[in-house]
């Protein structure tokens, strides 16, 4: 479903971010709120040959996988007025053209008591996408992330910033998938640093 079909006639829209949007939205918004959506789990199963990788060594970034008993924490941004069109135009290039993501509307539950859910737009990469890489062990994903970089920067930065967000903004949430990949990637990055030092010393 295309964003313009979802948002026709709307003067306000919530956009849910669960990957790089949580620390780098890069569009103007009225307010933001930490919270979660239900029925999806976050996984590093999508390939990236632009922002965090290339055609030879695609990076790994997150997408959402349907799972009835799961929830995914992130940040929702409310855009209003002209911000609606501006943000969707920007995100269409960032997430759809360069990332291969599609859009859905989901219920977003803001953190805190007595906070009613709101409908939010979310970008999801599905398994029929050409860039979709699918599951792998935390060790294999961590190695891939440790060695890849793209036009936006190193894949490792993407991983570490997401892990930092979860620790700082959602300290009560245990994201085993994320943190096990972080551990594997840092181990690999440390080994690469040592290897580079030894080679330089020869």
Automatic annotation (TrEMBL):
SUPFAM superfamilies: Gamma-glutamyl cyclotransferase-like. Keywords: Lyase. It comes from the Eukaryota. GO terms for biological process: glutathione catabolic process. Its EC number is 4.3.2.7. Signal peptide: none annotated. One of its GO terms (cellular component) is cytoplasm. It holds the Pfam family ChaC. It catalyses: glutathione = L-cysteinylglycine + 5-oxo-L-proline. The keyword Lyase applies. GO terms for molecular function: gamma-glutamylcyclotransferase activity; glutathione specific gamma-glutamylcyclotransferase activity. InterPro entries: ChaC, GGCT-like, GGCT-like_sf. Catalyzes the cleavage of glutathione into 5-oxo-L-proline and a Cys-Gly dipeptide. Acts specifically on glutathione, but not on other gamma-glutamyl peptides. Belongs to the gamma-glutamylcyclotransferase family. ChaC subfamily. This is Gamma-glutamylcyclotransferase. It comes from Perca fluviatilis (European perch). The lineage of its organism: Eukaryota, Metazoa, Chordata, Craniata, Vertebrata.
């Amino acid at each position: 479903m295309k964003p313009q079909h979802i948002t026709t006639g709307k003067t306000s829209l919530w956009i849910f971010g669960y990957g790089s949007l949580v620390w780098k939205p890069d569009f103007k918004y009225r307010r933001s709120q930490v919270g979660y959506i239900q029925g999806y789990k976050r996984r590093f199963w999508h390939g990236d040959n632009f922002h965090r990788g290339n055609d030879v060594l695609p990076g790994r970034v997150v997408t959402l996988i349907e799972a009835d008993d799961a929830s995914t924490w992130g940040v929702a941004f409310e855009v209003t007025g002209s911000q609606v069109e501006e943000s969707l135009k920007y995100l269409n290039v960032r997430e759809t053209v360069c990332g291969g993501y599609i859009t859905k509307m989901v219920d977003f539950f803001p953190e805190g008591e007595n906070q009613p859910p709101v409908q939010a737009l979310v970008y999801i990469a599905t398994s029929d996408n050409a860039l979709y890489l699918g599951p792998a062990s935390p060790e294999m994903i961590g190695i891939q992330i440790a060695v890849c970089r793209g036009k936006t920067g190193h894949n490792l930065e993407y991983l570490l910033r997401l892990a930092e967000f979860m620790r700082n903004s959602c300290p009560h949430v245990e994201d085993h998938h994320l943190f096990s990949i972080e551990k594997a990637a840092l181990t690999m990055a440390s080994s690469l640093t040592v290897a580079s030092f030894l080679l330089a010393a020869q």
